[in-house]
Amino acid sequence: MTPGKRRGLYDLYMAAAAAVREHDTTCTSCSPDPRCTTGHRLYGELVRLQDDYLAQQKTKRP
Asked: How far apart are CA 50 and CA 54, in angstroms?
């Protein structure tokens, strides 16, 4: 990405997904249901961005 360029919603969504995957590979207390505090925050952000991205896509389709 070019310095100074704003990240789009898709980029933020993919970065959040990568952060969750990275956290899940290193955290020994997280699993799909119970998550540590950090894992819960990261997953919540992913869900919010995914919802926002999918809503944006629906508005772009005819």
From this structure: 6
Task: Give dist(CA 54, CA 48) in Å, integer.
Answer: 10
How far is CA 43 from each of CA 2, 35, 39, 55, 58, rounded to the nearest angstrom? 27, 9, 6, 18, 23
pTM of the model: 0.80
Which tokens hold the place of 40?
A: 């819960």
Q: How far apart are CA 20 and CA 46, in angstroms?
A: 8
Helix (H, G, I), strand (E, B) or coil at 55: helix
Where exactly are the structural domains of the chain? 9-60
pLDDT tens readout for residues 7-39: 899 999 999 999 999 999 999 998 877 899 999
